[in-house]
Design brief:
It is built from 9 helices and 16 strands. The chain is an alpha+beta fold. Helix 5 crosses helix 8.
Length: 391
């Protein structure tokens, strides 16, 4: 099982200059190899493999001497990243790889674990051509180091993500039981609504930070381009963006930890977030709440703990269906936060009713042979891992 450990690092001025040069060279090689592959295909339909492009890096070093000043392992890794992005374009239908820009692209480089090391006894990283770099050791790890990814955030701070093979196999998912299963409904007013009736409100960290960012952006627009004062204001804006992202990520990690600690099986909707943000009235709120980040965290943490994470169809009528009698209320609108079922007269909270239905629909996919199961009884069974979306 692989795990990543992220540390804050403190390179000196000479190391910072070399890291900046490495970031620039990696961006240059990425763009150059992407252009070579694109031109070769457009010219005579030639398909260049990843190894062909790695060989091209050697000729690029002869043409551009400054590429020899940075670690060679970083340049090889960036070609591998470009090749993965290129292959994903054909496999998953994602967008064609874009050329990286100097100011908007993420500054990062990857060091192989064979030529780098983490010296935990002296709290230093040993990086090829960079030397020993101090890092803040807030936790130790045991395992085989695979690679180290060095990144620089917009606020100027440097971080190192160490990918380690722990040698411990991920635990197998436990049998699903209705008593330890919780349905989750995601919302904007309340971030999480569970089938147990618990609600976690949306903290709206971004509201205050966005106002401060908007005020500073107004000041920035009034300054002369290229001036030092404009650069200082831009740095303040970048720090606020980083603060906003850290606040949301910290909140999401705490929520995910709470959900996994209290439940063995979680059931969620497979939301089409990309399609939902096309609604310009809700796009900013959906992006700020980061539903996709919550899903990503739940997926890998469930795998680590041996828990079950089930996704139901995004088109399932969880909100408009009565969880008591099954009546479908087609007249329900987005503004209706509560409603009374015309079939049985039950009063429903819109979000809690949806969470109960999500739990029921998730369990029905696992327990089709259990007679009399209504999603509320305590029923357990063994299941085939390939029959559900378990991570």
């Amino acid at each position: 099982m692989h795990k990543a450990f992220k540390y804050r690092i403190y390179p000196n001025k000479a190391q910072q200059a070399l890291l900046e040069a490495t970031f620039g060279c990696c961006r240059f090689v990425y763009n150059k190899t992407l252009d070579i592959r694109k031109t070769a295909y457009e010219t005579d339909k030639t398909r260049l493999s990843k190894f062909d492009l790695i060989k091209k890096v050697t000729s690029l070093k002869d043409e551009f001497e400054w590429l020899k000043d940075v670690p060679a392992t970083c340049l090889q890794q960036v070609v591998d990243n470009m090749d993965k992005a290129y292959q994903n374009f054909f496999k998953s239908g994602k967008g064609y790889p874009k050329f990286k820009t100097k100011h908007r692209s993420r500054k990062s480089c990857c060091f192989s674990g064979q030529r780098s090391d983490v010296l935990q006894d002296i709290s230093c990283l040993k990086l090829s051509k960079i030397g020993l770099v101090k890092y803040k050791k807030d936790r130790a790890f045991v395992g085989i180091l695979r690679h180290i990814v060095i990144t620089q955030e917009n606020d100027g701070k440097y971080y190192a993500s160490c990918v380690v093979e722990t040698g411990v196999e991920a635990p197998k998912p436990q049998p699903v039981e209705a008593s330890t299963t919780v349905g989750i409904d995601l919302g904007l007013k309340d971030f999480i609504i569970t089938s147990d009736g618990h609600k976690i409100p949306n903290p709206r960290f971004y509201a205050t930070v966005d106002r401060r960012i908007a005020r500073l952006q107004k000041h920035e627009s009034r300054e002369q381009k290229g001036s030092k004062r404009r650069a200082r204001i831009r740095l303040k804006i970048n720090k606020l963006y980083v603060k906003k992202r850290n606040l949301i990520k910290n909140f999401i990690y705490h929520v995910a930890k709470t959900l996994l600690r209290e439940s063995q099986t979680l059931v969620m909707e497979d939301l089409n977030i990309v399609g939902m943000v096309k609604n310009h009235k809700l796009a900013k709120s959906i992006q700020n709440i980061c539903w996709g980040e919550l899903r990503r965290v739940l997926e890998y943490k469930s795998k680590w703990l041996g828990h079950n994470l089930i996704f139901i169809d995004r088109w399932a009528p969880s909100t408009k269906t009565c969880s008591h009698c099954g009546f479908h209320n087609s007249t329900l609108t987005l503004s209706d936060r509560s409603w009374v079922c015309p079939g049985c007269g039950t009063h429903h909270d819109r979000d809690i009713n949806a969470a109960i239905n999500i739990k029921r629909m998730g369990l029905e996919t696992l327990l089709p042979a259990v007679s009399g199961f209504d999603g509320r009884g305590e029923v357990g069974c063994n299941f085939d891992e390939a029959s559900i979306c378990t991570v």
